[in-house]
Write a structure and sequence with these properties.
- The chain is an alpha/beta fold and 300 residues long.
- Helices cover 46% and strands 22% of the residues.
- It has two domains: 248 residues, von Willebrand factor, type A domain (Rossmann fold, 3-Layer(aba) Sandwich); 35 residues, no CATH class.
- It contains ten helices and ten strands.
- Strands 5-4-3-6-7-10 form a six-stranded mixed β-sheet, with helices on both faces. Strands 1-2 form a two-stranded antiparallel sheet.
- Helix 2 runs parallel beside helix 4, helix 4 packs antiparallel against helix 5 and helix 7 packs parallel to helix 9.
- The longest helix has 26 residues.
Length: 300
C-alpha cells in the first residue's frame, strides 16, 4: 500500500465519522455514475484545427469560414487545476430537522463529499463557514492532508447565531482573485433581493456559481397542526400561533421567496439545486453533477 492510498483511506474513515451519508455519496459517485466536476468549468480557447466528420458542429468557427471558406473547429483546453470554494451556512436555522437529520447534517455531509471528489481530481478546494460573519476560512488546497483539516472543522462546527448571507457573499467575492467555482450551501433563509445582489457580484467576478439550497420537508409542507409555540433558531422571540390558520400564508411566503431566488439565479446563469433532507445524499449529488455537465457549453 503506497502513501497516497493510505491517506485516502484515512480520509474515507474521516468521512465516515462525519456521517455515513458522506462516505456513501463519495463511493457511489466514484463508482462511475458521474462525469468530471471540472469538465467545462475552466475551459479556455486554445487554437483551431480542420474539421473532420464526427466533430461537434457547435465547435465550428463560423468567423473563420466567412473569411476563408474553410471549416475549422475551435479546440479548447482545460486549465491545469480548478479552484473551488465551498461557502457553507452554519447559522441557527440550519440546525432545524423534523426527523433524524438536520439541514446542517445534510449540508455538512454534502460539503465533505464534494471536497473529496474535487481533490480526487487533483483540483483545489477551500472552505468558508459562516453565520452572520465568516468564522472559519480555510484557503484552497489540493492535498489529502488539507482535506482532513477541512473534515475536522466540519465535524466540530455546530450551527448557531443569526444569518446575514449577503455581506458574507460580498466578502467572499472580494477575496477571489482568479476565476473558479463557488459552491454555496445554505437554506437560503435571508432577504432574497440581497442574496441575489450578492450572487450577481460573484458572477461579476467571473465565478462559476452553484447554489445548493437545503430544506427540511416540513418547511415545505408545514404539516404541524393545532395551537403551537414556535421558537426561532436565530434569536427571534417565541410566538404562539394556530398552525392550521397560518399554513396557507406561510406556504405562500415561502413559495414567493423561493421563486425570487430561482428567477434571480436563472437570470445570472447560476445553477440552483434544491435538496430535501430526507433525500438520498449520493443520488442528489449525482443528479446535480450530471445536470451541471449537461448544461456546460464551451466558451469562446
Amino acid at each position: 500500500m503506497n502513501l497516497q492510498t493510505s491517506i485516502q483511506e484515512q480520509v474515507l474513515h474521516k468521512l465516515n465519522s462525519v456521517s455515513i451519508a458522506a462516505r456513501q455519496a463519495v463511493e457511489s459517485i466514484l463508482s462511475g455514475q458521474h462525469k468530471s466536476i471540472r469538465r467545462g468549468l475552466s475551459i479556455e480557447f486554445a487554437n483551431h484545427r480542420p474539421y473532420v466528420p464526427g466533430d461537434d458542429i457547435r465547435h465550428l468557427d463560423w468567423f473563420v469560414y466567412a473569411r476563408s471558406d474553410r471549416y475549422d473547429v475551435r479546440v479548447y483546453e482545460e486549465e491545469t487545476k480548478l479552484r473551488a470554494t465551498i461557502i457553507l451556512d452554519a447559522s441557527g436555522s440550519m440546525g432545524y430537522g423534523s426527523h433524524s437529520r438536520t439541514k446542517w447534517d445534510f449540508a455538512r455531509d454534502c460539503a465533505a463529499a464534494l471536497s473529496f471528489l474535487m481533490l480526487r481530481q487533483s483540483d483545489s478546494v477551500g472552505l468558508s463557514i459562516f453565520d452572520s460573519t465568516v468564522h472559519t476560512e480555510i484557503p484552497a488546497g489540493s492535498t489529502m492532508g488539507h482535506l482532513i483539516s477541512m473534515l475536522n472543522k466540519l465535524e466540530e462546527t455546530k450551527p448557531g447565531n443569526e444569518t446575514d448571507l449577503a455581506p458574507v457573499l460580498m466578502q467572499a467575492a472580494s477575496r477571489l482573485k482568479r476565476r473558479g467555482l463557488v459552491i454555496l450551501i445554505t437554506d437560503g433563509f435571508d432577504r432574497s433581493e440581497a442574496v441575489i445582489k450578492a450572487l450577481s457580484y460573484l458572477r461579476h467576478k467571473k465565478q462559476e456559481v452553484w447554489f445548493f439550497q437545503i430544506l427540511d420537508p416540513n418547511e415545505l409542507t408545514f404539516s404541524m397542526t393545532g395551537v403551537l409555540e414556535f421558537q426561532g433558531l436565530e434569536k427571534e422571540r417565541k410566538l404562539k400561533l394556530d398552525a392550521d390558520r397560518i399554513r396557507h400564508l406561510y406556504q405562500e411566503a415561502l413559495l414567493r421567496h423561493n421563486n425570487l431566488l430561482a428567477e434571480g439565479c436563472h437570470a445570472l446563469g447560476i445553477r440552483r439545486y434544491v435538496f430535501q433532507t430526507n433525500e438520498d445524499l449520493a443520488n442528489g449529488i449525482i443528479m446535480a453533477l450530471k445536470t451541471s455537465v449537461a448544461q456546460v457549453q464551451p466558451r469562446a
